Structures are given as C-alpha cells and as structure tokens.
Amino acid sequence: xxxxxxxALVTLTASVPSPAVSIYLPTHRAVPExxxxxxxxxxxxxxxxxxxxxxxxRASEARSLLAPAVDLLGDSHxxxxxxxxxxxxxxxxxxxxxxVPIRLDETLVVSHRFHVKPLVPLATGDSGFFLLTLSxxxxxxxxxxRGALAELELEAxxxxxxxxxxxxxxxxxxxxxxxxxxxxxxxxxxxxxxxxHKDNLLRFFRKVDAGLHExxxxxxxxxxxxxxxYLFPIYREANRYPHLLDEGIxxxxxxxxxxxxxxxAWSLLEPRFTRAQEDAVARYRQLAGTGxxxxxxxxxxxxxxxxxxxxxxAARTAQQWGTYDPAADRVHLGSEAxxxxxDLLDLAVVQALIRGATVHIAEPARMPEPAPVxxxxxx
Length: 379
Known about the structure:
Elements (H helix, E strand, L loop, with lengths): L5 H8 L6 E7 L10 H18 L4 H13 L4 H4 L5 E7 L2 E7 L6 E5 L8 H5 L4 E6 L4 E6 L4 E4 L8 H5 L9 E3 L8 E3 L5 H22 L7 E5 L3 H8 L5 E7 L7 H30 L5 E2 L2 H9 L3 E7 L5 E5 L4 E4 L8 E2 H11 L3 E5 L10 E5 L2
Parallel strand pairs: 5-10, 10-11, 13-17
Antiparallel strand pairs: 1-2, 1-4, 2-3, 5-6, 6-7, 8-9, 12-18, 13-18, 14-15, 14-16
C-alpha cells in the first residue's frame, strides 16, 4: 500500500458519488491483538450498511458499495501486516484503503463526501516523519509517528554501495570490499584516495535520492538521517527532499535496534511538532478580541470557503453536524448525524487546506480556547 500523502488527501476531498463511507480503525502489529481487528472492522461494516440503507440506498447498492471492504475480511495476510491505524473509503465506483503509522479512533461516517480530518496531521507533516538509515552496506527507510516505526519497501533504491555502483564505469572495473559493518569501504583500482571514496558515496546517495524522490513526492513530513556522521554532509549534497531535518542520529544504525532508533528520532521531532502548534496558539491568544479570531463554527465554515482563514484549529475527536447552504452562504447546525448532514469541522478543515491555510488537528486540551474549532482570519 502506498504512503499516505497530501496528494492522497486532496484526492479524497474530490467530489465522489453519494453515499461516501469513511471508516477508521485502530489496528495492531502483533498477535493476539491482530485477531480482534477484523472482528471490529466487520462490526463497522454492518453499521455502515445500516447507515447507507438509511440514506436511501437499495440493499443491492449497499452490498455492492461495501463489497471491496467486505473482501478484506478474508485476507489474513492483510490483517497480520497492519500498522497503527487503518483508513478505508468507499463510494459508488470508488474504494481506497490506507495503513498508517498513527493511532486512529474508531470512527464511521456516511455522508456525501469522505471524512478526512483524522488523516490531516499525517498528510501535512504535523505528526508523522521518515527515518532514513544510511550505511555503505544497507539503506532502509521507515515511516514513523509518536508510537512506532514501520519499515517501507524500497523498490527503486539501491540497497548498498556495491549494488549502486556495480554497473558504473565498467572500464575501471572498480572493485571493493567492506570490513565490519559501519566501517569505510576499501577500494582497489584507480583512484583509491579519499576524494574518490567521497565521489563514489555521492553517486550512491544520488541514486538513493532519486528513488526516494518518487516515493516521497508530495509529502511534507520531516526526514531524519541516521548513520555515521561523516555521511551526513555527503547525503545532503545529493538530497532533493525539501523537509530533510538539519539534525541527525549519529552512529552506525546497523548496531541499533528499531525501538532505539525510534526513541532517538522522536526526541528530535517532538519539540518541533509541539512548538509549531504552541506558537500558533500563542498567536491566536495575542489576536483574541481584535476581530481576527473566532470559535464560532457558523462563522468559520463560510470563512474557509472564501479563503479568509489563515490558521485553523480543530479538536481531534470533535464533530459538529450540520449543513452548509452555499446559495445563502449560511451554516445550519444539527445535534447528531443524519442523512443530508455532514461534519462541519471536517468541511472547514478540507476547505482551509485547499485554500492554503495552516491546519492544526489538536487534542482538546491543546486548543486555544475550550471549543471544537478555532480560527485566525487573514482579514
């Protein structure tokens, strides 16, 4: 399955035939917990079918809509290779699924469009990250979050310096062998000096970067390097990913466990994630009372559609049901989910992102005010 990206989020916000079913499920990486995941997913599918029928669909239409999701129930390989969360989206003629490295709350939404708010932090780089471990013997890429690291398959990335260079300059017949893991390679043939060694590493890292460029296209999550420190400036010379972190994890990653790598990476990134949100909250509070802030969803939703919102905060677990009338440019609130209503917080998040606003999905205790949504206006 592909890495969830901002491009994927934008695709999900596009218009789809109604009804649109969005399912979020916290999943597990190891037994026996993995055995419970398909059971809970099956229960969500039953509830989804009931809601689709309540929205006016025929029984055959509901079964056809959910059939690709039902097929997942019999795929044991799928359920034993999960991450921390599963997101499934189904609409007539549309089906998408994403395994993600962030914990998701169990959620079911049936509306006229997909519900995407839980995935926004991952797509915008506000909670997820990548970790690239570098050595001459091995290159590995992990996708991480607060909870864990998950290794990603690198199909277009050379696994080692030997593999990357074995077809280069055949006339030179460059050969080398490596000593203990993490030590510099020894070269035999022409150009055995330090400059030659650095040049070979740079060529290797450019091939690595070329593979990552395709894999990480459209992502905003920070990338952390882990490796022997002298490799960092050489890789930076080859790198084109715009969100490479200045700090790295120095040392031979082949000798460090994955949990230890995760702990070191998160210690670098947690202050970065919290600082951006805290700075935005501080700015909101400075502007409070000036007319440039609001917690009124009936004011915020139209403002997002008109591009007036500069920064939007939405509480992670909150929902506010209602409708937006574009002809009157007015919001009508409802107390619960019913056919024809949508989560207005999700609508605000989507429209704010489309129009270039900064969006923070926050824990309720970290909202700038005790409200499910808050905004800083551009004007």
